[in-house]
């Protein structure tokens, strides 16, 4: 039986998934298109043919991660508590959220920075639109989400978290509505 041939769109989707895995682990600067090609089981020239540059592939990963958050929020409900519970579930998607963290870290690149700022702004405006919450409430919501994302990247919170140290328990316990997986 021969190999199953993927369409260009399917292969592109596969490459973005591989890119998210690679970039979330190693960051923008340390990841090569060859690393991504190996993960996707394609040639490095094929990666360049589909995306042109590593930067465009990185941006595609940012776009996918942000779109996933936006769709999760749209599906969640119309109050901050519902969106918060939905984001707690997203913490299990470590690579996706780590991709966003890598995007923030690479924002000094003008093209990457423009996309990351745009997508962060879109998430902010979506939260305002869905919930009708005031700017200060959305700011607290985003700050809590960022803290949870960082704690997840550190493996302090979320699925697969490391054994708790006193500072972790104290910090996590101060997050309204967050349930530490180790306690459930």
TrEMBL record:
Tree of life domain: Bacteria
First and last residue of the signal peptide: none
InterPro entries noted in UniProt: Homeodomain-like_sf, HTH-type_TetR-like_transc_reg, HTH_TetR
Residue ranges of every copy of the HTH tetR-type domain listed in the record: 9-69
UniProt-listed PROSITE patterns: HTH_TETR_2 (PS50977)
Positions in coiled-coil regions: none
Keywords: DNA-binding, Transcription, Transcription regulation
Pfam families referenced in this protein's UniProt entry, alphabetically: TetR_N
Feature: DNA-binding region: 32-51
Name the record gives this protein: TetR/AcrR family transcriptional regulator
Species of the source: Amycolatopsis minnesotensis
């Amino acid at each position: 039986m021969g190999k199953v041939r993927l369409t260009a769109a399917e292969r592109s989707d596969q490459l973005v998934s591989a890119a998210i895995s690679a970039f979330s682990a190693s960051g923008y600067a340390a990841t090569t298109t060859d690393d991504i090609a190996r993960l996707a089981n394609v040639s490095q020239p094929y990666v360049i043919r589909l995306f042109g540059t590593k930067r465009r592939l990185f941006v595609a990963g940012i776009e996918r991660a942000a779109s996933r958050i936006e769709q999760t929020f749209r599906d969640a409900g119309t109050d901050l508590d519902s969106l918060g519970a939905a984001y707690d579930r997203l913490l299990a998607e470590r690579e996706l959220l780590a991709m966003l963290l890598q995007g923030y870290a690479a924002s000094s690149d003008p093209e990457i920075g423009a996309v990351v700022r745009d997508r962060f702004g879109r998430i902010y405006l979506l939260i305002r639109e869905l919930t009708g919450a005031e700017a200060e409430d959305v700011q607290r919501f985003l700050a809590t989400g960022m803290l949870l994302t960082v704690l997840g990247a550190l493996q302090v919170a979320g699925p697969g978290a490391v054994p708790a140290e006193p500072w972790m328990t104290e910090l996590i316990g101060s997050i309204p509505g967050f349930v530490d997986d180790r306690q459930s």
